[in-house]
Amino acid sequence: QIEVLPIPRHDGVPPVFFLIIFYDRTAARATERIRTDFVANASHELRTPLASLIGFIETLQGPAKDDAGARERFLEIMRDQAGRMSRLIDDLLSLSRIEMKRHLPVSEPVDLGDTLKKVGDQLAPLARQMSLVIELDLGAEPARVAGDADELIQVFSNLVENACKYGRSGGRVILRLRTGEEHGRPIVDASVVDFGPGIPIEHQPRLTERFYRVDVGSSRAMKGTGLGLAIVRNILLRHKARLLVQSEPGHGATFTTRFGRLS
Ligand code: ADP
């Protein structure tokens, strides 16, 4: 959209100069598009398990009414579908809570070493279930950042959960902290490293899109919602931190978060 404004002159002579203003409507349109796509995707993701639940209820009321074996099997599937809807709603609510706080500054000093230790302890049972061991490699330097402690726990929980779910063949998951400098500024890298199948390069730039999954079949089997990395991205935006993904298929994946470090 373009707007042309005459620049007024004070001597009564008609204007000869014009100010041409270009309005960039593309960004606004893209944001609107993302929002409508999101609502459509979220509705679709919720509708799928709901349709399956309704189907099973009707079958249990009709053809399978007196079949005890079928009832057991169907109830099991229905519990899974209800669980899936519940996880989706939890993730959608998390995402919207985080987006609402997006412009609030973070100021609390948080020690990322403590955060990684907590997440390692919390997810040790999940790792055991997947026959994995979580190892900590925290380095010697303190790694304090300005942050929101609960949100940072959520970031690393999501990353470690993914490393356990998708990297289960790798035997171990490493939580690593390294301090350093970037353009003369102190930084800290907190990484989650797995030794699973990794992520093909063409998928890597899209991983943080809402509902994006590399392999829908196996991600669904892994109880994924496709929102975990979108939540990570939004929290990191608020922290002015970056997410770097390194992965060579067949050799695992490393998700690194890079923060400005408090000295
Ligand atoms: P989900 O809820 O499906 O796990 P995420 O947003 O957390 O959603 O991740 C998006 C997709 O990225 C996953 O479905 C999976 O295909 C892929 N992915 C994420 N982490 C890993 C990993 N450590 N190894 C391999 N693939 C991964």
Strand content: 15-25%
Average pLDDT confidence is 90
> Which structural class fits the helix and strand makeup?
alpha+beta
**How many separate helices?**
6
Uncertain stretches of 5 or more adjacent residues = none
Order of helices and strands: EEHHEHEEHEEHHEE
Major sheet details: 5 strands, mixed
What sort of overall outline do the alpha carbons produce when their principal axes are compared?
flat
Helical content stands at 40-55%
Which ligands, by name, code or SMILES, are bound?
A: adenosine-5'-diphosphate
Strand order of the largest sheet: 4-6-7-9-8
Distance between the termini: 47 Å
Radius of gyration: 24 Å
| Strand elements, count | 9
Domain Histidine kinase: 41-263
Catalytic activity: ATP + protein L-histidine = ADP + protein N-phospho-L-histidine
Protein name: histidine kinase
GO molecular function: ATP binding
Describe this structure in words.
By secondary structure, this protein is of the alpha+beta class. The protein has helices at residues 25-61, 68-100, 112-129, 149-166, 216-221, 228-238, and strands spanning 2-6, 18-22, 108-111, 133-137, 144-147, 172-182, 185-194, 242-247, 253-260. The strands form 3 sheets. Strands 4-6-7-9-8 form a 5-stranded mixed β-sheet. Strands 1-2 form a two-stranded antiparallel sheet. Strands 3-5 form a two-stranded antiparallel ribbon. The protein is flat, with a radius of gyration of 24 Å. The mean pLDDT is 90. The chain binds adenosine-5'-diphosphate. Adenosine-5'-diphosphate (ADP) binds next to helix 4 and helix 6. It catalyses: ATP + protein L-histidine = ADP + protein N-phospho-L-histidine. This is histidine kinase. It is an enzyme of class 2 (transferase).
